Amino acid sequence: MTLSLTSALKPTPAFSVSYLERRRLFFILMTLPAVIYVLVIGVWPLAQGIWFSLYEYNLLKPARTHFVGLGNYIDLLSDTVTRGAFVNTVIFTVGAVTVELLLGFAIALALWRDDRFNRICLALILIPVTITPLVVGLIFRALLLADYGLVGYYLAEFGISNPRGLFANANSALATLIFVDIWEWTPLVALILLAGLKALPGDILEASEVDGATASQRLRIIVIPLMLPSILLALTLRTIDAFRIFDSVYVTTGGGPGNATNTLMLHAVKQGLEFFNIGRASAISNLTLICIAVIAAGFILLIRKADRKANGR
Q: Of 240, 91, 97, whose CA–CA distance to 174 is shortest?
């Protein structure tokens, strides 16, 4: 009697299979909206951009649309404006990310100790990160205007900046944009590196201090090698973001004076929305995407290598 009752209470294989199928279907239905969103917002525009880049396609002359293959990409290699935009993008990325990493690491070391004062300082320095780049660009444009800017007026009065302002001078416009980016994103780098510092094994640091290692020796021999994954993560995020800079440049200089601050993304937008050359704009955007993908792949490989080295594998 007991055996028959127990066997009757056990689920049949058909019930188990049906439950697993329903569970699988439930998860598929739950993820389906996200998949559709990615396909519509991400994959489809990317595919369209690749397709348009293979055509000579101008919205003002739709009847002259024809297939050119890689012609748009080849033309970009010989275009001085595109080469200048690429050089400006590289200078901006290298300059901004390098300073952000150094300053962020110094701030992270200063805030390493967990006390109330450091927590308040961390909350305050994170304020720039909460402001969108577009608004940050508008704020600094208003501050640095030579006519009525709160800072720009005195810089022009004392002869430190051009009479028309820092953004109007071809020699200082790109450097000023780099400074704006550093002001906004250094706190984010500091936060990432601070998280890496707090994850370091305290016993190793205490043992090195007992053994008589100085602060600089601990920093050079222990802290920095163990921090490499966090450092590379911060470099990856900021390099990718800085390479596709657009908003702050658009609202402050518009790529000027001349093409002194013209970047790849801004150049693509100008080609598409000002000259309506969709084929060339798509080619510029795809080249930017390729550069970002190469940068990301290189940093990911370095992060994995640094992580294996830090864990002794």
A: 91
